[in-house]
Amino acid sequence: MSAGYIPIRSELPADSLSAGSVSAVLNEIGSRLEILCSSGESWRIDLRSLPFSAQERDRLKALLGQGEVVAHIAALGPSELAETGYAGVWWVTHRNAEGAVVAELIEVTRVPDLLESPEQDVRASLSRLQGAIARCATLSEELP
Amino acid sequence: MIPNESLGTLLAQRGVSRRAFLKFCTAITSLLALPPQAVHAVAAALEKARRPSVIWLSFQECTGCTESLTRSYSPTLETLIFDMISLDYHHTLQAASGTHAEKSREEAMKASFGKYLLVVDGSVPLRDGGIYSTIAGRTNLDILQESAKGAAAIVSVGTCASFGGLPKARPNPSGAVPVSEVIRDKPIVTVPGCPPIPAVITGVLAHYLTFGELPALDRLGRPVSFYGETIHDRCYRRPFYDRGKFAKTFDDEGARAGWCLYELGCKGPTTRNSCATTKWNGGIGFPIEAGHGCLGCSEPDFWDAGSFYTPLAAATVDVTTVAEAAAAIGAGAAVAMSVADEAKRRAARKAHEKMTVKDL
Amino acid sequence: MIPESFFFWVRGTGFQIAVALFVGGMVFRMAALALMARRKSLAEPRGSEWGPGLRMIWRRSFVLPQLGFRGKLTFVSGYLFHLGLLLVVLFLSQHILLLRSVLGFGWPSLPRGVIDVAAVLAMAALVVLLVHRVTDPVKRLLSDFQDYLSWTVTCLPLLTGFLLSRNAGFDYRTLLTVHLLTVELLLVVMPFTKLAHMFSTFGARWYNGAIAGLKGVLP
Ligand code: SF4
Hints:
The complex is a heterotrimer of chains A (144), B (360) and C (219). Chain A is α+β, with helices and mostly antiparallel strands. Chain A has helices at residues 20-39, 54-64, 119-142, and strands at 43-46, 70-74, 78-83, 89-95, 101-108. Chain A has 2 domains: 16-111, Ribosomal Protein S8, Chain: A, domain 1 (2-Layer Sandwich); 115-144. The model of chain B has no long low-confidence stretch (mean pLDDT 86).
């Protein structure tokens, strides 16, 4: 279910008063991208913390555009990490199992760190894989 | 339930991957309005946190607050927070009943005396010795006072526990008061709303878990991160308000075009809550998005603040009769004065004439 | 922030008290003026009273007398202020809501932009008039406490209302409470000071004209 069911239009005037906030975020993204270039430091912007209307959010999204990479994560509900038209700027949406957005961020980074396999999980998977290899070995030994 | 286990261990046991945990921490960080760079600090803190014991008391209430919290039945990020506490007593949710239930409360209180969180929904009736709401033959007042003794902090969930709510509305037949009027020596967080947003209830618990202390509170005990701004501050219809474009009825052209609902009684400008950003029903929307003004349900005495449909600018009381009466009194006084004046003059003139005649 | 109960009081009981004093006081003063005992004029009327009365209202209201710069300034500012105040008080949509809840009927509002301009002009005019009052030696001598009181209680609602409409400085509840309080103060003060001229002005002008007419000095 989505708000699209409700037959209420909401059309903000084109020259909406808070149009300035979109360019403010763009400026922040720009200066963070500069830092990413020079020192490699990445940054996050929580879209929920901004006084955005749905239209302004959409406008920002349209301005940033669509890049080459879209990654999906299925952990406690779906997440989408999409590189925008500007390399190094990612639009990240986390949803819960019911599909509701629980966090929406802009990440200024080369790779969002959630995409990397976490150390603990890698270590755990190593021991699992070793178990599997061992099982496999015994299995093939038993085979004639 | 083993309250001493750390959350990291607990989640690992449940098969929650590290990545899922980090996503969860991202959601919590956003929910608590912390700077998004703090995700890893939040993760580190949550991993080491111990599950606090929680005792939940329900007094003069409608169970709407509990409904709000438990309405999502599939495991979600929000319910995960609930897995992170040890809910040791909640008479709507627990399986035990009667003496067993009361015993479990006493045991939990003894086991973590001085450390448990006490959550209360509903107001406390005081009139006639508090007999208007009792549990297991004991008054709410009695149970609250007893349970508060060993609590590290109290969370008043809902407008009733926070400010008295509907039971306290005029004429308040049961003498209902909020928790803060009974318990004065414990830190109290209020999470008002009728009902409060589920994410806000869990957000307060998450904050307590993450930082081991209560969040920053405003004058009314509300967490600033959720009640710092008014609905009006963050309302998506605000550009219409600023331009003076108002819906005049619920079905006119303006209402259909999503214009501001101020003239239809919206209390958004005087109501602090995060409905406009956190939203309801899994993020679908909030009342103003559905076309109805804000009722102001998270503010003290909202039941007595006039009709839900009276605009904030209009009078909440009958002024017309007062004005009519005042006009009548004013006119009466003026007539009386002029009559008296006239009489005085006439008397003076008469006296004056007589004097003159005699003198002459 | 201001406690909620005070906000309720200001919107409820406080408002009732203010309106009662305003309406009661105004009706009393106007009726007292109209009924004031006057000695019967025994002289033969040398002209009519209606024509000159109306003409005097017109003359005092719309005919620009010969004035120097300062005089013109006072004149223009006075007009701007009264016009601005009238527009703001009667044609801001929020005010119409309030008046409708009291009177039982309403009328169309003016756009926000117009009201904003009117409010700014009215406040600017008030400032000009105050500066003129304190810098002009004659005016300063003529001014007493009541003049400054009237200026203050008139300016405050305009100022707080303007802040309220911009949501500036404080939260909406605080601003609305303060705005209502200043309006209530104005309502209470009005009938008992020079501000009562809001109702007596035209009556007084008519009376002046009519008297002159009866004496035959104003055709
Ligand atoms: S609908 Fe309510 S909260 Fe939204 S802008 Fe209008 S008055 Fe403010």
